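REVIEWER CHECKLIST
Item 1: Sequence provided? yes
Item 2: Single chain? yes
Item 3: Sequence as submitted:
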Amino acid sequence: MKTIYEKKRVSRDLSRAVISGVCAGVARYADIDPVWVRAGAALGLVFMPMITLPAYVAAVILLPRRA
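Item 4: Structure as written out by the authors:
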């Protein structure tokens, strides 16, 4: 007998989005407050912009939308 369950997946959360919903989607996946993910993204952008900016753009392009 098979059990059907919903897989937990990362997606862009447009209902709590500030820019594009990437941080809100990651926060929903990790079950934490989006403020912490946004703060981490801002710190990453300040200290490691050559890694953080392409990763964010890639996430905007690759992650599916979730309304």
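Item 5: Key structural point noted by reviewer: The first strand starts at residue 12 and ends at 13.
Item 6: Recommendation: ____
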